[in-house]
Amino acid sequence: MANIEYGGRVDVFYKGKWGKICRHKWNFEDVKVICRQLGFKSAIAEFVVGDVKDEDISFVMSNVACNGDEPELASCPRTDGKLNVDCQNDDKGAQALCEPKRKLSF
To answer: What's the whole-model pTM score?
Structure first.
């Protein structure tokens, strides 16, 4: 099983508060961008775990459509604020699993 220390739900700071990204259209190209932006070596997967529900955090972004080469998520086409109808039935949010730059020894 993957080390989930390097993965989880991707939250963004939008208009002064933290929010979730809708998983509708979220894919591996989006994960490549967020892993790079956060300083990781590479992207591994776009789904990490099923138990990341948090009804107290609302969706603030949807329809993220990175091509994988962008320097940060803010450079990708996306919808901020208004949500795709598919987000209403999904309270988990987009996820990412990244590979650290160096192996950690325990």
So the answer is: 0.83
